[in-house]
């Protein structure tokens, strides 16, 4: 479609940066005001977690509904996407999800939340993001790449059923999942204001899919079909920053920059911008350990709580659902271990 828009001096890749920037600003502002974060819904007493879980579930419901609607309209297709690969890297997905879930508890938030906090003045979140980006890049292309390749090679043949939509009944299963998430959200006790913000966050997922997979598609200069996510984009942004002449910016770079800008604007306007640093060696070690676990885990799992969670599950991918499940279970267990340890000390 891109070639019909009449742009002569802008390439699809350059346009994708702008798209990522705009969506990132909206995400950053809404996530900052709503406290949007999966970790908040998993660590602590259930009564305290339920409203936060409801907010996240509302975003998931709209992400699935919007994405499946775009597929039904024929705007996008995930047939050749990595989320729907016929060979499921089950070991990589489960191990990666478990590592990421534990890491986000240790670091005080998942990568998307830390990006929002960095925009609000958190220097410790910024440090965690830098370490996360370095470790994630090492797992993708550096010294840890053999680990990724080895675990990724342990696959299970799905027999053509790489997504819920491949089951008898087709897209009905995805719509049922969206409905279940919406019911959970509406019964969670979360405020209507936060649920409305979460709904818009969820709709950013199909907007990104359609933007990169339909609007910006050019047969002669294609861009990858992608949506919200923070593992690859955070690593790409770091290395674009230090090697911009060799590494071009893309959708992910625009997204990461937009989230920081949007959250900073929201924090300043609300009078909540604060410089926050690490409190001591013990906290520093815990946060950096969490960053490293998330860096490796995010790559192995195929994304973070947003990349594999919101965006991945919106495709009805079994791999993404397994990754998100592993993250949730691991985060919950890690949180309980810390709570009991604090209670006994």
Report how far the terminal alpha carbons are from each other: 61 Å
What percentage of residues falls in helices of 4 or more residues? 55-70%
Mean pLDDT: 91
Largest sheet: 2 strands, antiparallel
Number of helices: 13
User: Total strand count, please?
Assistant: 2
* Backbone structural class: mainly alpha
Walk me through this protein's architecture:
With 345 residues, the protein is mostly helical. Helix content is 67%, strand content 1%. The protein contains 13 helices and 2 strands. A two-stranded antiparallel sheet has the order 1-2. It starts with 11 loop residues before the first helix and ends with a helix.
């Amino acid at each position: 479609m891109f070639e019909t828009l009449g742009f002569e001096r802008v390439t699809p890749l350059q346009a994708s940066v702008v798209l990522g920037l705009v969506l990132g600003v909206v995400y950053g502002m809404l996530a900052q005001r709503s406290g949007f974060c999966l970790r908040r819904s998993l660590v602590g007493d259930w009564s305290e977690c339920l409203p936060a879980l409801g907010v996240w579930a509302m975003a998931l419901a709209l992400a699935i509904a919007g994405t499946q609607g775009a597929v039904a309209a024929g705007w996008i297709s995930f047939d050749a996407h990595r989320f729907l690969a016929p060979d499921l890297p089950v070991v990589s997905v489960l191990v990666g999800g478990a590592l990421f879930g534990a890491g986000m508890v240790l670091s005080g938030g998942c990568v998307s939340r830390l990006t929002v906090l960095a925009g609000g003045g958190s220097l410790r979140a910024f440090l965690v993001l830098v370490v996360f980006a370095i470790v994630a890049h090492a797992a993708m292309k550096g010294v840890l790449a053999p680990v990724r390749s080895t675990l990724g090679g342990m696959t299970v043949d799905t027999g053509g059923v790489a997504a819920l939509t491949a089951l008898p009944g087709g897209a009905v299963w995805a719509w049922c999942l969206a409905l279940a998430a919406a019911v959970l959200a509406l019964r969670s006790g979360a405020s209507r204001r936060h649920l409305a913000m979460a709904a818009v966050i969820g709709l950013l997922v199909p907007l990104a899919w359609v933007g990169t997979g339909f609007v910006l598609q050019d047969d002669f200069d294609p861009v990858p079909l992608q949506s919200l996510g923070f593992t690859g984009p955070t690593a790409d942004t770091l290395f674009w920053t230090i090697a911009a002449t060799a590494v071009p910016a893309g959708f992910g770079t625009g997204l990461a920059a937009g989230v920081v800008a949007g959250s900073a604007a929201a924090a300043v306007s609300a009078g909540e911008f604060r410089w926050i640093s690490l409190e001591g060696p013990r906290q520093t070690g815990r946060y950096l350990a969490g960053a490293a676990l998330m860096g490796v885990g995010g790559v192995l799992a195929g994304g973070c709580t947003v990349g594999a969670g919101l965006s991945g599950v919106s495709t009805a991918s079994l791999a993404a659902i397994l990754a998100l499940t592993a993250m949730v279970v691991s985060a919950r267990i890690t949180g309980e271990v810390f709570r009991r340890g604090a209670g006994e000390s």
